[in-house]
Structures are given as structure tokens and as C-alpha cells.
Specification:
By secondary structure, the chain is α+β, with helices and mostly antiparallel strands. It is built from 9 helices and 6 strands; from the N terminus they run βααααββαββααβαα. The protein has a two-stranded antiparallel ribbon with strand order 1-6. Strands 2-3 form a two-stranded antiparallel ribbon. A two-stranded parallel ribbon has the order 4-5. Strand 2 and strand 3 form a beta hairpin. Helix 2 crosses helix 3, helix 3 packs parallel to helix 6 and helix 3 packs across helix 7. It starts with a strand and ends with a helix.
């Protein structure tokens, strides 16, 4: 079997396959771990496609959610606010970056959501009092967001030209099947 190089577009496309749909439907809790990681992947594609230098994961999440129309429902959890700096007494702008702090960090580091975020298998209720994130809603919104990223000229150019992964069928075996097909 020959080696195959995959660009970021092919890798991203491979995330939204039947295997992930099945995981979202049959094991939504574990799906949140992958969905959190895929959000980060998408955020990096967005930032680098926009030629932005700050690649901190906080900034990656904040910008993806605040700039991609398909993720607009999550913006109500992702706002900036001002606080007084203890040393200077000056107002400084911070962001609460809710999905980053409480979904992504919790699920990827401890396999537990943090604070008052509630995970459910189906639908979101993102009101300030509930903060319920549904696996199916998040997956559907992320899939739309990925399609949106692919039609953005700068981002599309970046993800189509950035090599991401080399698959060697002799060594990759079944792990390459879900990515390369």
C-alpha cells in the first residue's frame, strides 16, 4: 500500500463521518471529548487561515465562536467584560470564553465538564440560567461551521495547502480507514 498525504481539509472532512454521528447518538458523553478537540482543530484552521499570530487555545476558541456564523448561538456564553487590574487600577478587558474553560478544558483534561455547564444528548438550552449543551446540536452546528470555513477564501486556501497527516497503509492499518475514506 502506498503512502497518502492528507491536507487539513481532508482531515477536517473526515471528522464529520458516520462514526462520529454514531458516537454522538450512542455515546454522547464521550462524543463531547472529541467534539471539544475538533472545535480546537477548527479554531486553529480559522486563525491560521486569517493569518492571526495569537494561537493560544483561549484565543482560538474565542475567535472561532465569535466569528463563525454557524456557532452564533454559543456567543451568549462567550463575551468580554472589564475588570480592574489589581496593580495598575486600570480597566482591562477579559473574556469568559465559556466553552473553552468549562467544556474543552474539563473534557480534555479531566473527562468532566467544569462549573455549571450541563451536557445532554440532544438539544441546547444556552440561556444564562441553564447553560445546557446538547451533543447533537453541537455536532450539527460544528458540521455547518466546518462547511462555512471551507467556503471562506483565505481559510480554504490555507486548509487545502497545509499538509497535516501522512498515512502509510502498511503501518496505519485500520486507523487510516476512517480518515482516508
Amino acid at each position: 500500500m502506498c503512502k497518502e498525504k492528507l491536507n487539513l481539509k481532508k482531515v477536517g472532512d473526515s471528522f464529520f463521518n458516520q462514526q462520529l454521528v454514531s458516537l454522538v447518538e450512542n455515546n454522547p458523553y464521550l462524543a463531547f471529548v472529541l467534539l471539544s478537540a475538533i472545535l480546537e482543530f477548527m479554531g486553529h484552521c480559522y486563525r491560521k487561515g486569517q493569518k492571526t499570530n495569537d494561537d493560544t487555545v483561549r484565543a482560538v476558541f474565542f475567535d472561532l465562536i465569535n466569528n463563525v456564523e454557524a456557532l452564533k448561538d454559543y456567543r451568549q456564553l462567550n463575551f468580554k467584560f472589564k475588570v480592574k487590574d489589581r496593580k495598575s487600577g486600570q480597566d482591562i478587558e477579559k473574556d469568559n470564553n465559556y466553552l473553552y474553560k468549562y467544556l474543552r478544558c474539563g473534557m480534555l483534561h479531566e473527562l468532566l465538564p467544569q462549573e455549571d455547564i450541563v451536557l445532554c444528548p440532544d438539544r441546547n438550552d444556552l440561556s444564562n440560567s441553564k447553560k445546557i449543551v446538547g451533543a447533537k446540536n453541537l455536532y450539527e452546528d460544528m458540521k455547518k461551521a466546518w462547511e462555512e470555513l471551507k467556503i471562506s477564501t483565505d481559510i480554504s486556501l490555507y486548509i487545502e495547502n497545509a499538509d497535516a497527516l501522512t498515512i502509510d497503509g502498511d503501518f496505519s492499518g485500520s486507523t487510516s480507514l476512517s480518515i482516508s475514506t
